[in-house]
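Operator note (shift B, R.M.): manual run for Large ribosomal subunit protein bL20c requested after the automated queue skipped it. Running by hand, logging everything below so the morning shift can see what happened. Input copied straight from the record, untouched. If output looks odd, do not overwrite the archive copy; leave it for review.
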Amino acid sequence: MTRVKRGYTARRRRKKIRLFASTFKGAHSRLTRTTTQQRMRALVSSHRDRSRKKKDFRRLWITRINAVTREDRLFYSYSLFIHNLYKRQLLLNRKILAQIALSNKNCFDIISNKIFNQK
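Run finished. Output pasted below as returned.
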């Protein structure tokens, strides 16, 4: 029986995995088995952290808005601000409000006064 040489399929698969893990450290970029494990782990982490990033940015925006709303008035908080915002039907999302609060404080004060004074 003649000797059968394996095709290039497995080599191509390993090469693709090794290319993905080329920036990993140590054996994680060199050994095939650890490379595949690290690749699976990296893909799981990237999938998880894509949704995590959205939560983190929302928390950051809420923190920034809360800090600015508490500066001027004593008993005024983020939750009251957002509640009054929806009550007045001023539809501004948290990202835009946080940018206004950071870059243009006068504009944010105008918005909060408009919300706070109308009852």
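Quick read of the result: The chain has one domain: 6-115. The CA atoms of residues 2 and 30 lie 33 Å apart.
Leaving this for review. - R.M.
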